[in-house]
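Milestone 3.1: sequence recovery, worked example.
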């Protein structure tokens, strides 16, 4: 075979090789991008419940309490509180061994599924502030936990039957948007079954750092 013919054949082979390599490289890139996209989809699905139903999560103030503790070690401008060795700023200039009154708080993480049901996860108690007297502590806490009477929407009432026994329930919609189910007597069932709104007593628990953020809790019927 003449050299020009060999060169033409060799050149044609090189073109075919380059074409094959190009096609193979394109397929590899498509596969890589496909895997990246799949990983991204999997990551973005982390905020969904099983079955693809979306969930909403929020952290709300849940409760406050006041209890007595004793001052332990003094560390700089802070102090530890016994028996759990929780640390707080020593704003009251307390000494080791002093008795103090501590206000602690608890939060709740609320997840609402697509079906409207709430899943509540409570935090532990965290010390917030110390006081010299119990009356000072409770006066401060009363600004964060308040009871009021209000009117709310009655979602409905219903009965459950088991054998020869039955129970009555009422479901109300709280100002915070979540729904509360409460067992009720036969008399109350009859009194409210045709109503659209009912009067209740609720407790509003406010966030200490953002007073406008509050959680409403059912505390009884106002009528």
């Amino acid at each position: 075979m003449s050299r020009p013919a060999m060169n033409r054949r060799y050149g044609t082979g090189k073109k075919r090789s380059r074409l094959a390599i190009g096609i193979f490289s394109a397929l590899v890139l498509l596969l890589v991008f496909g895997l990246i996209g799949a990983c991204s989809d999997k990551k973005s699905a982390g905020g969904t419940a099983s079955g693809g139903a979306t969930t909403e999560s929020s952290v709300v103030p849940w409760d406050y309490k006041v209890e007595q503790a004793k001052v332990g070690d003094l560390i700089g401008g802070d102090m530890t509180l016994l028996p759990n060795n929780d640390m707080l700023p020593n704003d009251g200039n307390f000494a080791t061994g002093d008795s103090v009154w501590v206000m602690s708080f608890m939060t709740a993480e609320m997840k609402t599924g697509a079906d409207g049901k709430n899943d509540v996860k409570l935090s532990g108690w965290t010390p917030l502030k110390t006081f010299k007297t119990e009356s000072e502590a409770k006066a401060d806490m009363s600004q964060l936990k308040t009871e009021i009477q209000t009117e709310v929407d009655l979602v409905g009432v219903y009965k459950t039957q088991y054998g020869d026994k039955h129970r009555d329930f009422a479901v109300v919609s709280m100002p915070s948007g979540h729904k509360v189910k409460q067992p009720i007597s036969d008399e109350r069932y009859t009194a409210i079954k045709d109503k659209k709104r009912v009067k209740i007593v609720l407790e509003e628990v406010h966030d200490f750092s953002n007073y406008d953020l509050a959680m409403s809790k059912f505390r009884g019927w106002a009528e």
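Residues 3-44 form the longest helix (42 residues). The chain is about 25% helix and 45% strand.
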